[in-house]
# Entry
Amino acid sequence: MILKSYIESEPNGYAPQIFCTYDQAKDFIENHSSRVIIIGPDGKKLHRALQLRKDGYALIMLSRAVLKSWRCEIGDFVEVEMLPDTSEFGMAFPEEFQVVLDQDPEADKAFRARKPGKQRGVLHYIDSGKTEATRIKRSLEMAERLKNNALYGEENHQ
# Structure
């Protein structure tokens, strides 16, 4: 599905987003899911959520980093391709984290026991590392935090 939209933001200028009609979004979600992959002007695949709002519209959140990659700004008109996200976790799975989980069954079990939103948060944090060394460091850190129930918002978080 091709989505054509202006890039807008909330009144405070934070959280760039693109919009979709409520009916289009509802139909897409009913036929697939709310997890989508969008392909923007730079040709890169981004895992995102298609969010239905009670006000009668739907949106996909972006980030300043995405706008920079797209060479776009708030107010620009963009055309993106929206595809169903059929990945297991609704996010890219960093290779570095997979290696850590393969070597640490306890961390793998702890990761898979988390709710999908927590899993995506961990994956996003690791995958957002710009270098392989950073992603390895974050993978090892997350494995330990998962085993110790020390993720943000968990009871044993310190």
